[in-house]
Amino acid sequence: MTSIRFLLLIGTALATSSGAAIAQTPAPAAPAQTPPPAPAAAAPQEEAPAGEADKPAEDAAALDDVVVTARPNDIRTSSEGTSYSLANDLQAQTGTLAEALRNIPSVEVDPDGNVSLRGDANVTILVDGRPASQFNGPSRGQLLQQIPAAQYARIEILTNPSAAFSPEGSGGVINLISKPTTVRPGRTTAGSLRANVGDTGRYNIGGSLSHVNGPTTLSADVGVRHDAYLQELQRLRTRFDAGSGRFLEARQSQNVEGDSDSVFVRLAVEHNLDDKTQLTGDVRHTDVDSFADSLDLYEADAAGGGIASAYRRLSGGGFQGQFSGASARVLRRFDAAGHEWSNELRYDRNRFGVELATLADQLIPVAAPFNELLSNQNRQDQIGFTSAYVRPMADGGRLRLGYERQALTLEQDNLFARGPTPSTLVTDPVVSNEFHLDQTVHAVYATLERPFGEKLTAQFGLRLEQADLELNQITTGLRSSQDYFRAYPTLNVSYQLDDMQTLRASYGRRIQRPGPGDLNPFLTYQDSLNRRSGNPDLLPQETDALELSWGYRQQQTFYQATLYYRDTRDAFTPVTTDLGGGVFLTRPENLGASTSTGLELVASGALHPTLRYNASLNLFRQQIDAAGLVGTVDSEGESVSGRLTVNWTPTQEDFLQVSGIWGGEQLLAQGSREQSTLVNLGYRRKLSDSWSFNVTVRDVFDDFGSTTTLVTPTFTDRSDQVFGGRAAFIGLTWSFGGGQRRPEQFDFSAPTTGG
After folding, report:
1. Which residues pair with 549 in a beta bridge?
2. pLDDT tens digits for 611-645?
3. CA 173, CA 542: separation in Å to the nearest integer?
4. In 73, 498, 576, 635, which residue has its Cα 20 to 30 A from 380's Cα atom?
């Protein structure tokens, strides 16, 4: 199977290279649906004009899911990052955010939904430039695999954003941009409906609606999703036995099968008091319910030969979460040149947790079966306020000033009970506890962007933050606190070599604060062999990042090469230790330092009027200074990851897509982690101006997974996880009230309210 997958990827690459040869011959007339190429003089215009951040583009494909398939603006760049359109990502039309993110350069998403940027898992996710608490906590992986990607127009990757953005997330920022909600002139209502049905009972249904009544625009988005969940885990452990002086082997297998359901609703209103004052507000809710049954088998060798221990565990349970939020914003425009002041208030309420009931059957030595109950519940409330002022300068520059306050309160209840029957469970106080956390961050920032001549533009930024953290381990009465003030400078420089080439350089300092689970010192029961605890002494990690990039754009051709360097102090790392009896404990610790140096290549273009490609390659070297942590060693290594997508439009109505993704190896303080190749297929048929039909196949070879290997002087641990994520969907999309489809246009912009 691996060889077949490899051949398919090679074939895709050969198709790309052969398309280049075709491109050398005179090209036939393009399909009528394809817009004419943009004039060369317009190519360098990549950034949003001042003051246009909050204005929808006139040609936006508002709420329409049927779009043309060849546009010059699939990829846009600015001094801070790169923006990728999702309009022609067929997996995004039927899949989740996790699947859409996997197709974005710089981004890796593992089978559990854990996301990273260039190998760094400390990533902040924003929605429309605003904090999104549901995507930045322990529930992020679950939500990324549940929230439909179809409601988003594009994804912005900001590896070195300006001081207007929060510095949280040492790896950088992923900004999810919602689809525009404008209704075209002459219309009052526009919307779309989509329905996709898949194998093994999968389905997803969604719709968007926008209605204009004078100065008021009402919009709504809704999505319902049902998916199947499959997972296979094989673990092999060897540990040193002091009594016999030998390394003994233990084997564990786990098979998980279940279903997940989710509902997403968002309502928004936009009201123009006059031509300069705008009020906006929205409410949103996501409900996730995932249930699965699992079978665990375990056996461990005895020092004298044979089996010393063996058991079988049957478990049932899952994840439940309710994520709600609301925001209100007032925007005052003082002129049409971008002079404006905005204030926004946000509230997020998240309730989520895991509950698992287990029947354990001890096979060797023989013992009576017993029952276990595991419950981890989280209650999280967050209030945020942002005030942002933007003023264009007489010299063509732009000044941004802002203040931001984020207040987070989290309560965490961990319960573990064991007993001979479900009705006679007794709470185990060693792994049951209640934990509270309160965190408040105040920030002020300033950025100044100005030209120096006709070709050089620089942006200077400084952000000052005061963070206060209070920890309360209710069960034990242990209290602790952290209080620190930090400065975060940023610098972005852009030089226009000519109409088609741009050089950019940037510097930024970022921080990653420990999450609640990272700080809670109490033991958490994962299974009979694996325990976890937090570390209340864990320090925030800080990263200095440098980038130098070259970009080339001509009509529909885009190339970008980026050299980057990241130096992280006090980097988080999980450290696993042997507690004895085959039980391992994993606890976060601060490394001395971690550095990574890399080269990222991105290419996109039209090889032929009917053939387009998008490709990226990331090569980086990582070095880890373990700072003498027990069970760790200083290490270094290289990694290569990439993706390739080929789009073919044989007719005006037909669009075919094949994509391949291969993940690189990620270095750990005690080993490494790598994920397998993923191949996806898609086809879309335009039935009319309003209707389209689509077919997608995710994970064609049904072997997407990851392998984690830990190696220490006293034990080794290898875990092979297969996601079982192959899924096929067929679906229909209906758009109404939007008139003739037009190419999607979008502008890359800073956060509307300061981040």
Report:
1. 504, 562
2. 999 999 999 999 988 877 777 778 888 889 999 99
3. 15
4. 576
